[in-house]
Amino acid sequence: MYLNKVFIIGNLTRDPELKALPSGLKVCSFGMATNRTFKDKDGNRQDTTEFHNVVVFGRTAELAAQYLKKGSQACIEGRLQTRSWEQNNEKKYRTEIVAETVQFGNRPGAGGAGASSTGANNTGGEVKGGKDAGSVPVIETGEKIEYPSEEINPDDIPF
C-alpha cells in the first residue's frame, strides 16, 4: 500500500497568484510557512520554520485567490509532487503540495471572519481533526454561529 498525503496548517508567505492553463483550468500558487517548537539537548526551547510551495487547481484555486492573502491562516490537505525542468542546461527540481482541500482560517484585519473552500463559513479558530470530521481537519471555535432568519437559496451561493 502507498500513501502520499499531506496536512499543513500555517500562514501564507505571499499573496496567491492565479493563472489559467491553456485548457482554461485555473491554477493558484502561493507559499506557506509552518512552525515547530521543540527542546534541544540542553533543554532550551527552539523554534524552526518550514516553507512550503502550494498549488491549487479548479474552483478551489479561484476561491483561494479570492479569499486568501499574505498572512492568512489556512489548512491544506493534499499530496506532495516534485516537478523537474531544464534551465540553462541545468536540471531544476521543485517539490510542492498539490492541494485537494483548502480551509481558510482567520484573515488578518477581518475581525476573525473566515471561510472554507467546501462552502461552509466559519469564524476561524482552533483547528481540530478527528473521526467526526472524516479525518479532515475542521476549523472550530467556541463561539455560537448565528444563522440568518431568511431562507437561503442554494443557487445564490457563489461556490
Describe the structure.
This protein is mainly beta and 159 residues long. The protein has one domain (6-38, 46-146): Nucleic acid-binding proteins (OB fold (Dihydrolipoamide Acetyltransferase, E2P)), CATH 2.40.50.140. Helix content is 6%, strand content 49%. It is built from one helix and ten strands. Strands 1-3-4-6-5 form a five-stranded mixed barrel. Strands 7-8 form a two-stranded antiparallel ribbon. It is globular and about 60 Å long.
Spatial strand sequence of the major β-sheet? 1-3-4-6-5
Question: Could you give the distance between the termini?
Answer: 34 Å
Q: How many structurally independent domains?
A: 1
Strand content: over 45%
- Main β-sheet description: 5 strands, mixed, barrel
Number of strands: 10
Structural class: mainly beta
- CATH homologous superfamily, by name? Nucleic acid-binding proteins
Low-confidence stretches: 112-141
Mean pLDDT, all residues: 79
CATH topology: OB fold (Dihydrolipoamide Acetyltransferase, E2P)
What is the helix/strand order? Answer: EEEEHEEEEEE
Helix count equals 1
The CATH architecture can be named as Beta Barrel
